[in-house]
Amino acid sequence: MKELVFDNDLYGMNWLREDFTYGEVKCPKELCGSVKNRRDGDKIYTEITISNPGQKPYFTDKTSISIAFPLVDKYESSKVCMEQRCHTHIFCGGNISYICALRMGGQAPHLGMVLTRGSLAGYSIERNLVSQSNDRGCFLLHPSPMEIRAGESVTLEWMIFPHAGKQDFFEKLGQYQPHFVTVRADRYVLFPGEKNTLHIRPAFDADRVTVDGEVLPETDGIYQLEYTAQEIGEKVFEIQVDGVRTWCRTYVQENPEKLAEKRCTFLAAHQQYHGGIEGLKGAYLAYDNEEEMCIYRPANDYNGGRERIGMGNLVTRYLSGQNGKVDTALWESLKEYKEYVLRELVDANTGKVYNDMGRDDSYKRLYNAPWAATFFTEQYRLCKEKKELVCAYRIVRQFYEEGGRDFYPIDLPILLLDRELTHAGMEQQREELRALYREHADTICDRDICYPASEVNYEQSIVAPAADILLSVYVLTKDEKYLKAAER
Fold it and tell me: What is the pLDDT of residues 133-144, one digit of tens each?
């Protein structure tokens, strides 16, 4: 099958990639695989058979066998993406496995898949490295480990169908898979001491439902397990419903205050440069945990600027929240880092932000300015020195002079900076920036959801700033125009 187009699709979207073969089975040389497809209107039934033609049994593991499911989850122009490309959400949960693929523009029909026979343990991705981040790759589904006897064949089956969105998708799973089990948790990420509940709803009348071997009682067709989060780390709940096996993964995370303290302490102790290279002294750098050493290279993602300023933002904000508690080592570390930023990355007189140490702006990158503006705004909140706020104001003004109105930046501190300018009585600067913010938001409104290409052709790193800027400007202006644009 090379083409999968649903009836009544306004855009005639082909959900399958052309450079991979749908249903192609790859397995060890001792085994062989085959695929059969049958179409009934908009429903496609796929049967995968794994056979052992040898004279001895073969035990597979989680990645021994792969089955290609080549959806068009890749990124071109915004028009092509919204009409002809999808985002793919995959759950390989044993007997309860499915795929919910959503057209990027949001218009139905979307694509759903539900496993109707067999078990999937997980998935991986075969990437097209030439396209890099513009192509998510081909999805490879991996059957759960099996013991295949000599001469034996094992079959997996699934069904593909159109749906109108996530709610419709999950409703159809129970209709198309008679042994489907819906598993939901109140929370999937918790902090120690928080209470959580698993909700298990079989699509059939079940006799026995267990979680980690514990039999659960039933109330109105739902089985619940209540517990309190304890040990930090991942917790996998093994679920069995009349022989149907699946699982639910949750994660217990350290509380934010403790996590921030540990992160900042590690950063100051290990990621700040104290070597003999003058230009890097005080810098927060990338760190290799295996080699236990700082990393600096001219390549952008390893240099001394860019998103590394986020480390300075974290330490500054952490110290602001300590309510007078003195952490001498962190204060000294931050002082050294601020000296580095002013010496190597930011011109406080003009607001110019550079891409790397040495005030190197050979690579033009507007993403850098918001990180620096946030840094100096947070510095003002920490130390209450007006020059820090003036620097933040100049950085944002320079950002717009360099073309910021047409850009979709991450972490532009619109509300944070506006609030602090108000508190400092800098009304002229605040009003100047408010006018620039509004022009920026107007540009985003005019473009609507036809996002321009950036570091990749079509990315979440553009969608998020679009919503953030529109909502921020709505808060400042109360103009419903920006709220409606943000909702869209």
Answer: 888 999 999 999
